């Protein structure tokens, strides 16, 4: 009897083993949510695969005169790689197209289901630069060595890096000359910073380095009418005088003409 009571006491004093249970969470709802997310992910992945079709057609538009549609397509194909319509980098293609000569702007758009639409805007050339370069209206030298330079374009020249400055002055000057029926054939900024204009009638206008805008305005007021009347007799007009200008005649003789607002220093040359 004593042995039985001891065994019972031992059983009562032995620690009880605990069972691990899941926290009280809405597992059914969580499982349904995860399943729903998995279905959505699969649907999105499937849709992306469906939409990311290989690009089979490239449509090139724009008023193309200098740019070849074939060259455009070559650039596009070279940058596609294994990308489809969804994953293709449109900015990268546009950047590549702008490296083509005569391309000023390139807009690239997707066209479902398997096409790219490319719109090309060509450069608008306004002048020749130095020997064989071509400038646009922003003064950008977009071609430094052109195989064909339109001879009717004005000839601009200047030191390296002065393209925008010379172009801006050319456009402003030509606008004023148009008012009096004249046209620029050439404009030069020399290494010393002096400006020289050549009109389409062959007359050269020397503006020099100082007060260039004021001298040109004085030319428009005082000398333009004289040139219009006697352009065939005049070789150059030198505006580098404080209140007057010098006329070089084709016969070789020089003459200093006084401007309307001239003073006693009419012969003072200011460079």
Topology of this protein?
Layout: H1 2-13, H2 27-51, E1 57-61, H3 69-80, H4 90-97, E2 103-111, E3 115-122, E4 125-129, E5 133-136, E6 141-143, E7 155-157, H5 163-179, E8 184-189, E9 195-199, E10 204-208, H6 212-230, E11 234-238, E12 244-249, E13 254-258
Parallel strand pairs: 1-3, 4-7, 7-8, 10-11
Antiparallel strand pairs: 2-3, 4-5, 5-6, 8-9, 9-10, 11-12, 12-13
Question: How would you describe what is shown here?
Answer:
34% of the residues lie in helices and 25% in strands. The chain is built from 6 helices and 13 strands. The strands form 2 sheets. It has a 10-stranded mixed beta sheet, covered by helices on one side. A 3-stranded mixed beta sheet has the order 1-3-2. Strand 5 and strand 6 (141-143) form a beta hairpin. The protein starts with a helix and ends in a 13-residue tail after the last strand.
Task: Write a compact overview of the structure shown.
The chain has 271 residues and is an alpha/beta fold. The chain has 6 helices and 13 strands. The strands form 2 sheets. Strands 6-5-4-7-8-9-10-11-12-13 form a 10-stranded mixed sheet, covered by helices on one side.
The number of domains:
2
Largest sheet: 10 strands, mixed
What is the element string, with H for helices and E for strands?
HHEHHEEEEEEHEEEHEEE
| Superfamily (CATH H level) name of the largest domain | Cell division protein FtsQ/DivIB
Q: In angstroms, what separates the terminal alpha carbons?
A: 137 Å
Q: Average pLDDT across residues?
A: 84
Strand content: 25-35%
**In what order do the strands lie side by side in the largest sheet?**
6-5-4-7-8-9-10-11-12-13
CATH names the topology of the largest domain as Rossmann fold
Counted beta strands: 13
Low-confidence stretches: 260-267
What CATH first level of the largest domain would be assigned? Alpha Beta
- What structural class should be given to the helix and strand makeup? alpha/beta
Helix content: 25-40%
Indicate the CATH architecture of the largest domain.
3-Layer(aba) Sandwich
